[in-house]
Each structure stands twice: as structure tokens, then as C-alpha cells.
């Protein structure tokens, strides 16, 4: 198994990409800590993993709140003694050109998508520094690199995640810690379904239009991203440092 006995924290793993990744990591032998703000969804992920014979437990925490994140990390260290992999996956979508975004909505997306990477990393990384080992995976998006209409706040957060990934890699490389980013294109999850439902009168036409922005005829599935995360979490990717990893059906190609 590719992740045998690794202790792995995945934020926002009650749904979508995080959930699919938690399930795959558990099948590969990891001890998965499922985090989410939503306890019902997080517990459901854990029940499904344990029913399939995997190892997982749920910790409810809000990735935007320092005390909440610190308590979660302390609890994991008490229970397992270490965290081998941190996957900063939790995130929300944001719609609108800059002038359409209200300040409180702007603050909320910045908080979840950027501070929500900073805080778990801050409290986990010094345990990794002590052990001189660890892999941190940050969730970006191809929207950071291609100009998509009415995604100003979201694009800003995901661009910041790419910059933060490089800055973190430089600071922690000498401690044996790798920091890489996932850069997905359109992946059909509740997050995207909700975005399509609330932003377009005709979601089917919107899906067809999204397909024209990539080379593949299919939109992505959560498992497509989970397999890339598996590589970054495993020791197989030990020579990958500070890199963006594209899983986008060719959306950023050319
Ligand atoms: P999703 O909505 O299905 O799952 C996100 C999870 O994060 C939810 O369970 C939610 O409860 C949780 N969450 C939200 N705020 C939280 C908080 N403050 N603390 C803890 N948990 C919180 O979304 P998804 O599509 O699986 O997206 C996961 C990540 O992938 C996001 O960062 C998103 O930006 C990124 N992404 C998604 C796509 C896509 O097409 N789906 C593309 C590129 C990047």
C-alpha cells in the first residue's frame, strides 16, 4: 500500500474532492483525519471509510479560527504522535466581477481559501520541522492561471495559494518538508454543481461551455484529483518541491 500507516489530515473532507481523497488514502493504508466544519458530512465520510475496512476519524474544526485549528492539531498529535501529510483542501467558491462582490463576501472567501491554508499549516508545520519530514498539499485552481469571467475573488485566493506554496517550500525545504499545489480544472462536485445551479439559468448549457474551455471531452471527477493527491502524499513524489500539479483536462494547456 502506498500510504501504509501515514497519519494524514485532510481539511474539508466531508464532501467532494476531500471526501474522495480521504477514501482513496484510507484504501492505501493511511490513518485519515477527516476535518470539516459540517459534522454530519464529516461523520458520513468516516462511516463510509470504516465500513470499507479503512482507518479514519472525524474532527470538527473551522479552518478560519486559530483556536479551533490549534485544538484539532493538538488532538491529532496526542492521539497519533505525528502528522505525516497535511492536505489543505477546504475552500468555497466565489462568483462575480470585482465590483459585484460585497466586502463581507470578499472577506469570507479570503478567510476560508487563504487563511484556511495558513492556519492548519502554521500549527502542523512545526511538528513536521521537529521530525524533519512531511508533505503539505495546498489546493489551488486553474482559475488562478486562466482568465475566467466573474471569478475575481476566487481567482485572487487561488493565485495566492500558488504564491504561498512556493514561499512555504523555500522556508521548509531544509527541514525535509515538501510543499506542492494541486491545480484542478472543473471537477464535478457539490461545490461546482451549486455554482452552476445558482449562477446560470441553464446549467446544462454552462456545462457544455465549460467543456469548450479544455481539451478533454469530459469534466473531471473527484477521483481524478484524489489520485494526484495520492502521488503528492506518497514518498514517490519526493523530488517534487514547490510545484503546481495540473489536473484540468488541458484547460491551462497552451
Ligand atoms: P465541496 O464544497 O464539495 O467541499 C468543500 C468542503 O469544505 C465542504 O465539505 C465544506 O463543508 C468544507 N468547508 C468549508 N468551509 C470550511 C471551514 N471553514 N472549515 C472546514 N471545512 C470547511 O468542494 P470541492 O469541489 O470538493 O472543493 C474542494 C477544494 O477544491 C476547494 O478548495 C476548491 O476551491 C478546490 N477546487 C475545486 C474545483 C472543482 O471544480 N470542484 C476546481 C478547482 C479547485
TrEMBL record:
<dbReference type="InterPro" id="IPR051122">
    <property type="entry name" value="SDR_DHRS6-like"/>
</dbReference>
<keyword id="KW-0560">Oxidoreductase</keyword>
<protein>
    <submittedName>
        <fullName>Glucose 1-dehydrogenase</fullName>
        <ecNumber>1.1.1.47</ecNumber>
    </submittedName>
</protein>
<dbReference type="InterPro" id="IPR036291">
    <property type="entry name" value="NAD(P)-bd_dom_sf"/>
</dbReference>
<dbReference type="GO" id="GO:0047936">
    <property type="term" value="F:glucose 1-dehydrogenase [NAD(P)+] activity"/>
</dbReference>
<dbReference type="Pfam" id="PF13561">
    <property type="entry name" value="adh_short_C2"/>
</dbReference>
<dbReference type="InterPro" id="IPR002347">
    <property type="entry name" value="SDR_fam"/>
</dbReference>
<comment type="similarity">
    <text>Belongs to the short-chain dehydrogenases/reductases (SDR) family.</text>
</comment>
<dbReference type="InterPro" id="IPR020904">
    <property type="entry name" value="Sc_DH/Rdtase_CS"/>
</dbReference>
Amino acid at each position: 500500500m502506498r500510504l501504509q500507516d501515514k497519519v494524514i489530515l485532510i481539511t474539508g473532507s466531508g464532501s467532494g474532492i476531500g471526501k474522495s481523497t480521504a477514501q482513496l488514502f484510507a484504501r492505501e493504508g493511511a490513518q485519515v483525519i477527516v476535518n470539516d466544519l459540517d459534522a454530519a458530512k464529516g461523520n458520513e465520510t468516516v462511516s463510509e471509510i470504516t465500513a470499507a475496512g479503512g482507518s479514519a476519524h472525524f474532527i470538527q474544526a473551522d479552518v478560519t479560527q486559530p483556536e479551533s485549528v490549534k485544538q484539532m492539531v493538538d488532538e491529532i498529535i496526542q492521539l497519533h504522535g505525528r502528522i505525516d501529510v497535511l492536505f489543505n483542501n477546504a475552500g468555497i467558491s466565489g462568483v462575480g466581477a470585482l465590483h459585484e462582490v460585497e466586502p463581507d463576501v470578499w472577506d469570507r472567501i479570503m478567510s476560508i481559501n487563504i487563511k484556511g491554508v495558513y492556519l492548519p499549516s502554521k500549527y502542523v508545520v512545526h511538528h513536521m520541522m521537529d521530525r524533519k519530514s512531511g508533505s503539505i498539499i495546498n489546493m489551488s485552481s486553474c482559475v488562478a492561471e486562466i482568465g475566467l469571467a466573474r471569478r475575481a475573488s476566487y481567482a485572487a485566493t487561488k493565485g495566492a495559494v500558488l504564491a504561498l506554496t512556493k514561499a512555504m517550500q523555500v522556508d521548509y525545504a531544509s527541514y525535509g518538508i515538501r510543499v506542492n499545489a494541486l491545480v484542478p480544472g472543473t471537477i464535478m462536485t457539490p461545490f461546482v454543481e451549486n455554482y452552476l445551479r445558482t449562477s446560470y439559468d441553464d446549467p446544462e448549457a454552462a456545462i457544455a461551455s465549460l467543456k469548450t474551455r479544455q481539451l478533454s471531452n469530459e469534466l473531471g471527477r473527484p477521483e481524478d484529483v484524489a489520485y494526484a493527491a495520492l502521488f503528492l502524499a506518497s514518498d514517490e513524489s519526493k523530488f517534487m518541491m514547490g510545484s503546481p500539479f495540473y489536473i484540468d483536462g488541458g484547460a491551462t494547456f497552451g
